[in-house]
Amino acid sequence: QVQLVESGGGSVQAGGSLRLSCTASGYVNSWLCMGWFRQAPGKEREGVVAIDSDGSADYADSVKGRFTISKDNAKNTLYLQMNSLKLEDTAMYYCTARYGSTCRRSSAYNYWGQGTQVTVSS
User: Fold this and answer.
1) Contact 45/63 with Cβ under 8 angstroms?
2) pLDDT single digits (tens) 39-62
3) Cβ of 100: how many Cβ atoms within 10 Å?
């Protein structure tokens, strides 16, 4: 069982930056996959990025070069640095986790945070 707590969402102008944080608690080990999903009104939930134990990341094409995922294992904290934000990035962002060695956006994640709203305006 893992609990996820997110922070860092807010409103920002197009071209600006935000950093999301997610702190995991409970049974956390090196086999815990983590990532970020997002969902905009009227759209399906989209996998933004996932990260595995060696730091390799699987990014959606829409965010490559703009978003960067990282983690601090000592603090059990996951980060998403979002730069050059666009209007299309507006969505509710969710921190996710699963137990396993396969960490891809297409994997089935069964632990979810409450979500944090990101709104990008012109």
Assistant:
1) no
2) 999 999 999 999 987 788 999 999
3) 13
